[in-house]
Amino acid sequence: MQLQAACSPTLSHQPHRRQLVGDPSGRPLSLSSHPVGISFKTSNIREEFFPRLRVVMRSQSTSDPIELDVSLSPRVNSVKPSKTVAITDQATALVQAGVPVIRLAAGEPDFDTPLVIAEAGINAIREGHTRYTPNAGTMELRTAICHKLKEENGLAYSPDQILVSNGAKQSILQVVLGVCSPGDEVVIPAPYWVSYPEMARLADATPVIVDTGISRNFLMDPKHLESKLNEKSRLLILCSPSNPTGSVYPKELLEEIAAIVARHPRLLVLSDEIYEHIIYSPAKHTSFASLPGMWERTLTVNGFSKAFAMTGWRLGYLAGPKHFVAACGKIQSQSTSGACSISQKAGVAALGMGKAGGETVATMVKAFRERRDFLIKGFSELEGVKISDPQGAFYLFLDFSSYYGSEAEGFGAINGSESLCRFLLDKAQVALVPGDAFGDDNCIRISYAESLSTLEKALDNIKKAIPLLKLPVSIN
């Protein structure tokens, strides 16, 4: 079988003696026992935006070509892959190849899951809790979540206003899909978690970015927010403490934002509170739904991954008005169904550890704070680096833009956050995430969810690599 390609070199695959055979009428294809080679060409349908790929097949027994459309949907083509995941995977591959890369890209605590939680998961298996749960989650876990929200956040919900999902990420996506229509706008402060704009695009909504800046500790200016709102504004996403900046919105600022939200009848708020327990005194966490008039407007997302070091357990939840939660539950019922039964048992144990996770989580937060303070002191010694002190989470979002335009021998020019991260991966063997993935190309993100000894080595490597860059202008 010979195949032609109009847009790319032929991709030949001949591991099996099989061949697709069919006809242009669209009748089903059958298999025969001849080798097959495959190549791709594009049609001219909307080619400038979404090229359609077709596998062109020509049987050895006939000259009639048969085309198989293997194009992807415009919705998928509009979405960019997660740069955080890509860099983490690249760094992992380098480590597996023997390169001693220090991985500070992923937001994953280095602590083991607390023993009481792990034991609850083990006991769940031993006791036979290994079957499907209700789509919304077990009544036991949803009741525990309601108690947590009441005691810690001042929020009153009933179990039918809670949806347990396979991680907070799934909960966020289901909110966006559940409330946004094509043409709606999702308002997102930048820097933002990498997935927010892409989730908006998956819902055929338009992400509208509200820029902040390091001079305001990456906190949104209410006046700037209001200038971005209109009748298409459907969802405002807030993340406090923030990924990637670690910024924490004070209650007074949230109250100003709430007053603006109240003036826009269509506008809902998604409050991403996954880092609420990883917060450094004197900063305090405020749930947006607890503000006057905001309970009806707010969909609160939280989970177990960060504070309880349960990233692999994949457990998160959504709380909000029943109408919206039920819509998200409908999406979940047709995609993943209920979360892992074993993880849900472990989640009950996590919520039973005491307010804000008790002493176990407090010990983790103390370690994160020590790491933060160490890195802030270390990076403040580097010329030209601007620092905003994070008040929560476990990230530093550092402005390295003064080094843009410089050259490194054997590497080339540094023209943005991505090339700087490639330089640090090459010369310092430290994997970081470029700020352009978060909507601010001036910065790079460092996760300090690693041991202090690992961070000491990473900082030392970076300090040795940075002098290889010659600053384009003097720093005063």
UniProtKB/TrEMBL annotation:
Any one GO biological process: aromatic amino acid family biosynthetic process, prephenate pathway
Molecular-function annotations in GO: aspartate-prephenate aminotransferase activity; glutamate-prephenate aminotransferase activity; L-aspartate:2-oxoglutarate aminotransferase activity; pyridoxal phosphate binding
Protein name: Bifunctional aspartate aminotransferase and glutamate/aspartate-prephenate aminotransferase
Top-rank taxon, per record: Eukaryota
Compositionally biased region (Polar residues): 1-13
Cited Gene3D superfamilies: Aspartate Aminotransferase, domain 1 (3.90.1150.10), Type I PLP-dependent aspartate aminotransferase-like (Major domain) (3.40.640.10)
Residue ranges occupied by any Aminotransferase class I/classII large domain in the UniProt entry: 100-462
Pathway: Amino-acid biosynthesis; L-phenylalanine biosynthesis; L-arogenate from prephenate (L-Glu route): step 1/1; Amino-acid biosynthesis; L-phenylalanine biosynthesis; L-arogenate from prephenate (L-Asp route): step 1/1
Family membership: Belongs to the class-I pyridoxal-phosphate-dependent aminotransferase family.
Record's keyword terms, sorted: Aminotransferase, Pyridoxal phosphate, Transferase
Cofactor: pyridoxal 5'-phosphate
Annotated spans, Disordered: 1-34
